[in-house]
Hints:
The chain is an all-alpha fold. It has helices at residues 2-10, 20-25, 38-45, 47-53, 55-65, 83-99, 108-132, 137-146, 159-169, 173-195, 201-210, 216-224. It contains twelve helices and no strands. Helix 7 crosses helix 10 and helix 10 packs parallel to helix 12 (216-224).
Amino acid sequence: MSEYLAFLRDRGVLAVKPYMEPALRARLGRFRDGPREFFGEVDYREPIAMRLHGFHWFDKAWMASEPASSPIRAPALLYNIFDTRTEGFATGWEEWAMALGLFDGRPRSRELVYILVAQRAARAIGDLRMHGSGHSLEQAAAFASANTPRGWLRLTGNLVRGEQHLYLQQPAYGTSYLVGKIQIEQLMAARRRQLGDGYSTKAFLDEFTTAGLIPVSLLSWQLTGERPAWLN
């Protein structure tokens, strides 16, 4: 935790607020000797990796401590329906923090970030096949397990079927991790083109998080001033 937060402060990546550290420390979890499920395998090898996805807890603490100025966006939702923003950002944050140098001293940790991306892609295809191709939950689970590196998403475990059951209940949730990540990367690129040399990661993250927890397409409209094509 100390290394991660020092990285954010020292590199000027993100404005670190007093409430962020306690919010994340409250969710640290504990070491599990095994057998481990997929995320336990990652956490066992590089504890910071899953702390990155814990940006969710920064989001929740921010909503409680510094709610958006809009009276519509300020109240915390009973359920977060904007998965492309929350899950997409948390997934992307793993890779973006790596690109900013977080794992430069531990190159093997970079492998884990790409394994995380691969697992999200495998289970997303399972989600799509259940809703679009009539695949059963068991078929989706088998596909996700077979296409996750290193055999870490075991069919003998509980996670793989639990995830696919969740995606069966909430269509497109499984795809939101990568679709949201891509949408936010497109927004980053658009702001870089607009601002030129005035663009910085910290400034982007400040305006992005301050805008509130709304769909990425609407965040893009607000931050760039460009109307989304689907509204035309």
